[in-house]
Amino acid sequence: MEDEIISFFSRFSEAFGPSGFEIEPLKMLKDRYSLYSDEVLSDKLGSLILKEVGSDRPRIMASGHADEVGFIIVSIEDNGFLRFEPLGGWVTTTLPAHRVIIRTKKGDYIGVITSKPPHLMTPEERKKPLEFKDLYIDIGVKNKEQIKEMGIRIGDPAAPLSSFEVLRNGRAWLGKAFDDRIGAFIVMETLKNLKEHGISHPNTYYAVSTVQEEVGLRGAETAADVVDPDVFIAVDVDIAGDSPGVSPSEAPSKMGEGVSILTWDRSMIPNARLKEFVIEVAEEENISYQLSAVKGGTDAGRVHLHKYGVPSIVLGVPTRHIHSHSSIMSPDDVEAAIKLLIALIKRIDMDITRGFTEI
Q1: What is the DSSP string of 153-198?
Q2: Is 213 a residue of the active site?
Q3: Set 14, 68, 189, 213: catalytic member
């Protein structure tokens, strides 16, 4: 992958964008990719929709969500410490001693998530997992008045502070917000490839970056109302099962072994014919892939229920340590996902689309 593309994704992954506060990563996408689209659209929640016309129908919508798991300030203590709640699915064991950025009307502030010092914990307290009520953000002040002077208010968002790094001489990437900046990156790079290489496709392609996925797949519903898709492809991270303590039955995909094709999750059973079509295309194009089944959910959980129903599938990038400050994935899997998405767009016409739902 070209250095310039990696450089963009590094800045994109580092961008500040918890659920409901995605404007920074969305603006980065619009600035970079809108010139490759025939029309720039959006919904009223803020999702970015870039349209590229090959033929009128079918309408193929592919999305990756721009939001990352983050936090929101819910209380300011008299001593200046900040209480917070999660935006998205955090486990408290990943949080203590990690730095965060708090975004306010007056600017950004850096703090650290912490709790009662371990030296002062009782043996019983050390054995119990921390709850969110046990955690707070320390930004180095002494009282509530100093917080007020800084302009920090209840309702201000916070996000992990974590830099992007290239590991193993380029064979692995480390960073935050891969869930799901990588999906948004893939659908937009696909758009760029279609336009730059003059790739013809018998459909209209909508590259979408949705908002508020981590708090209930909300942007997917409103974006689908704008697009009214005939086929939907969610591009998201997949939970890589090649980590200690994870069995293949819990997470079958592995980092570096290809794009994953989701066969089931708790939010959607993919259209069976579309799933088989995707597998056939991957095999015909010699694209490395793996079949997966996970217990989470994606934008497809909402879009497949749009209006009369939309044949939907999920392409995943196996990623270790998601919903943390530091995830790891392979750029080889990213490239496989882009190749497969392009191959699907080149082939899906109206006759094939009808075949997904004919009885």
Answers
A1: -TT-EEEE----EEEGGGTEEEES-HHHHHHHHHHHHHHHHHHHTT
A2: yes
A3: 213
